[in-house]
Specification:
- With 628 residues, the protein is α+β, with helices and mostly antiparallel strands.
- The chain folds into 4 domains: 224 residues, 3-Layer(aba) Sandwich (Rossmann fold), CATH 3.40.50.300; 83 residues, Elongation Factor Tu (Ef-tu), domain 3 (Beta Barrel), CATH 2.40.30.10; 107 residues, Translation factors (Elongation Factor Tu (Ef-tu), domain 3), CATH 2.40.30; 179 residues, 3-Layer(aba) Sandwich (Rossmann fold), CATH 3.40.50.
- The protein is built from 18 helices and 28 strands.
- Helix 12 packs across helix 18 and helix 14 packs parallel to helix 15.
- The longest helix is centred in the C-terminal third of the chain and has 20 residues.
Length: 628
């Protein structure tokens, strides 16, 4: 590999030492489809001579075979490594590439421009210090250009280049360039990008990439590479209070117990007072341990193991922080959420929230608003669809330590994961804790759940009957309650229709309302088990995610899922309430089994086929299971 430094051949040790102390800039390229992001990175790699000779030979061969430049070198092929990318001429995944100059080292993320891969762009931007936003000079500022710029602003990237590319295709028109810059400046001012550097260029031809181009005598600013070399990389996190999320409790033997993690902000030294969150317990740093020996001081960006002077309880996912200036602890937040998944975000549906090594259950409330990325208008919304951005409240099942994202990215940024499929469905940034989360506390009660259950001489349980309308749930639940009552058991039956006359009468039958319907009933069922009751729940409850949420609210072994099955044709034939007839006639929207899906349980405790068993037999089977 040919490198720009002669030290490689003359004094390799001197070269490596010089390379070691160079600053590192992480930046990403983003923008709309076909704006030239991959070509730009390929050109930077080529011009900085960071390509092996065999790579160059392969690039020339690939350019002749699958390139888009008529046999000339297609620089995009250096980073479009997936077969699908080369076939379609687009970027799909995030490609990271390293290169260096005499002044600085770089890691560049080539992010896809297609709207469906916005989540990949967020991934690339999450660790970037700077952003190069490309604009095709022929097309100007497009919707995806605006979306990526808005995300750059949200993610706190302060150093921005507006790279107006393909200027050779508009004859290097200064008027075209000025119009694009003026258009972008109006938008940038609205989203909080106060400063950006606009550079006219041709990534394919190399104009204004590493050297000023004679084709743009009217431009007197720096070429892109010089801007990248000179862009300031502030070490802001080192000046902030100490923060270290614990990734691992290091216990190799009985004589050593340390807490390993990546320092997200600040500095730490032996003797410093620290606080473990969310527990709030305090101690003092005894040693800073690394593979190369103990340190007198560690700073943001280092991975270390801390030992403490006291044996306090610290677990993976906790945060060690400066005792005098700790982060907040809360379980309810206002956040900005970027939705990644083809399946819409449903308010009230439980997801997993991952922030560093901490994983908790989370529910997103109805969005306060979503953002039109073209006009920045705040639009009313009941859900978020793929690639939409909204401001939502987030409710967690346990408190976490946090800083606002604007202060500490590692303690303010998170992802949401689907509990069933484990897909990453969204990414978010915490603004602040909701005040009500600070004002509401658990009140200690002297009479416990166990005492209430003992008084009744029974074990609290939730029997959750789910199935299509007409399958026989309510009939079986009613017979089961009579059987339990006759046996001296203390029960209550929550029936889907009855609850909608009171507690849930404000809810309709949209997907969002169905999720909220089950959430409320599950919380009521939990309270009733706290009272020591056996609770029978008869609800269609069509979605697995909400049934799983209800199960997880209860104690281990307390939840009994009963799938009351009848084929759709049989349930529709029965049609006791005439609902299927209305749904088929278009008079009843979002009816389960007709125009709204039913997700059958995969592993219920009891499965009942009401075409093979009478309601009395089904009730007796459940009763026997409960009393075994």
């Amino acid at each position: 590999m040919a490198h720009q430094s002669d030290l490689i051949a003359e004094d390799i040790d001197a070269y490596l030492k010089a390379h070691e102390v160079k600053s590192l800039l992480r930046f990403l390229t983003c923008g709309s489809v076909d704006d030239g992001k991959s070509t730009l990175i390929g050109r930077l790699l080529y011009d900085s001579k960071m390509i092996f000779e065999d790579q160059l030979a392969a690039l020339e061969a690939d350019s002749r075979k699958v390139g888009t430049q008529g046999g000339e070198i297609d620089f995009a092929l250096l980073v479009d490594g997936l077969a699908a990318e080369r076939e379609q001429g687009i970027t799909i995944d995030v490609a990271y590439r390293f290169f260096s100059t005499d002044k600085r080292k770089f890691i560049v993320a080539d992010t896809p421009g297609h709207e469906q891969y916005t989540r990949n762009m967020v991934t690339g931007a999450s660790t970037a210090d700077a952003a190069v936003i490309l604009i095709d000079a022929r097309r100007g500022v497009l919707t995806q250009s605006r979306r990526h710029s808005y995300l750059v602003s949200l993610l706190g990237i302060r150093h921005v280049v507006l790279a107006v590319n393909k200027m050779d295709l508009v004859d290097w028109s200064q008027q075209v360039f000025d119009d694009i810059v003026a258009d972008y400046r109006l938008f940038a001012d609205q989203i909080g990008i106060r400063h950006f550097t606009a550079i006219p260029m041709s990534a394919l031809k190399g104009d204004n990439i590493t050297e000023p181009s004679p084709l743009s005598p009217w431009y007197d600013g720096p070429p892109l590479l010089r801007w990248l070399e000179d862009a300031p990389v502030e070490d802001v996190v080192a000046e902030q209070p100490f923060r270290m999320p614990v990734q691992w409790v290091n216990r190799p033997n009985l004589d050593f117990r340390g807490f390993s993690g990546f320092i997200a902000a600040g500095t730490v030294s032996p003797g410093d007072k620290i606080k473990a969150l969310p527990s709030g317990r305090e101690s003092t740093v005894a040693r800073i341990v690394t593979l190369d020996g103990n340190l007198d001081r560690a700073v943001a960006g280092q991975s270390v193991t801390l030992t403490l002077t006291d044996e306090i309880d610290v677990s993976r996912g906790d945060v060690l922080a400066a005792a005098g200036d700790p982060p907040g602890v809360a379980d309810q937040f206002e956040t900005t959420l970027v939705w990644f998944d083809d399946e819409a975000m449903i308010p009230g549906r439980p997801y997993l929230m991952k922030m560093g090594a901490r994983t908790v259950s989370a529910q997103v409330t109805e969005p306060k608003y979503k953002v039109n990325v073209n006009t920045l208008e705040h639009l009313a919304a009941t859900r978020l669809e793929l690639n939409e951005i909204g401001v939502c409240n987030l409710l967690l099942d346990a408190p976490i330590a946090f800083d606002p994202y604007a202060e500490t990215k590692d303690l303010g940024g998170f992802i949401l994961v689907d509990r069933m499929t484990h897909r990453t469905v969204g990414a978010g940034m915490i603004h602040f804790a909701l005040r009500r989360s600070q004002n509401i506390h658990w009140q200690a009660l002297d009479v416990s759940k166990a005492a209430r259950a003992a008084q009744k001489g029974q074990t609290p349980r939730v029997v959750w009957l789910t199935g299509l309308s007409g399958a026989g749930k309510s009939t079986i639940a009613n017979l089961l309650e009579k059987r339990l009552h006759a046996a001296g058991r203390h029960t209550y039956l929550l029936d889907g229709d009855n609850v909608r006359h009171g507690l849930n009468k404000d809810l309709g039958f949209t997907e969002e309302d169905r999720v909220e319907n089950i959430r409320r009933v599950a919380e009521v069922a939990k309270l009733m088990t706290e009272a020591g009751l056996i609770v029978l729940v008869s609800f269609i409850s069509p979605f697995r995610a909400e049934r799983r949420m209800a199960r997880e609210l209860m104690a281990e072994g307390e939840f009994l899922e009963v799938h009351v099955h009848a084929p759709l044709a049989e349930a529709e034939r029965r049609d006791v309430k005439g609902l299927y007839k209305k749904a088929r006639a278009g008079q009843l929207k979002n009816f389960t089994g007709v125009d709204s899906p039913y997700e059958a349980p995969e592993s219920p405790e009891i499965r009942i086929d009401t075409t093979q068993m009478t309601a009395e037999e089904a009730a007796e089977q459940i009763f026997t299971t409960l009393t075994l």
